[in-house]
């Protein structure tokens, strides 16, 4: 076993499905595998940042369920979105009080989309909360987040599995996608058609980066859960946890990343 390898983990976006990342992280930790550099888009950025801040996966799950992230949103009176995220800022400050990337226990990179310049931007230093809000700012649903002179929306629009900040920096990269789509033989209505099409688009830019990952974990069938389906949080967490445990058992190479000492519960 080699405990000196730099292990990076890239976490995809996917709304409440991103809770599965916490289950994956818990399983990795229980098997002695501790990522020491993280990148994420949208929900993956939120899960990754709270983990990088030192919160245990079970604790983060409790925070998400207890606070019900989405109740902090309020209507936006503008043409750019129907909801504002400014009240969410106060929620993040409660759990990330120092509001800087430098205050985190692990290096973290947050992917966002610059809506005017049509490009991916990576934040990894300075102010933390604004980029974190921007990374989960779903276009058309939320007002874009202004940082300096630029306006940003969900990182998953252009990069839903940001492995690039880890490439060339880490010895090993683990990619985790929380939007697996099962085969669907019956599209029932326009809503399901739109949802499926959006997830297909998100997954395309995930799978185009899959080859950059040394290991790729994808809990099956998570796309059946709605983006805001917080009532299924425990179920989604468990799916990530069980999938990751099975993946580790079936892949000797990833188990060799385990530390010989200090395994968190």
Automatic annotation (TrEMBL):
Which Pfam families does the record match to this protein? Patatin (PF01734)
Which key words are in the record? Hydrolase, Lipid degradation, Lipid metabolism
Does the keyword Transmembrane helix feature in the UniProt annotation?
no
Molecular function as annotated in GO:
hydrolase activity
Sequence motif GXGXXG, residues? 13-18
Sequence motif DGA/G, location on chain: 154-156
Q: Which InterPro entries match?
A: Acyl_Trfase/lysoPLipase, NTE, PNPLA_dom
Q: Which residues form the active site?
A: 42 (nucleophile), 154 (proton acceptor)
Instruction: Domain (PNPLA): give its ranges.
Output: 9-167
Find motif (GXSXG) and give its ranges.
Answer: 40-44
Q: Does the keyword Nucleotide-binding apply?
A: no
Q: What is this protein called?
A: NTE family protein rssA
Q: Which organism is it from?
A: Cecembia lonarensis (strain CCUG 58316 / KCTC 22772 / LW9)
Provide the organism lineage as a comma list. Bacteria, Pseudomonadati, Bacteroidota, Cytophagia, Cytophagales
Q: Coding gene? A: rssA_2
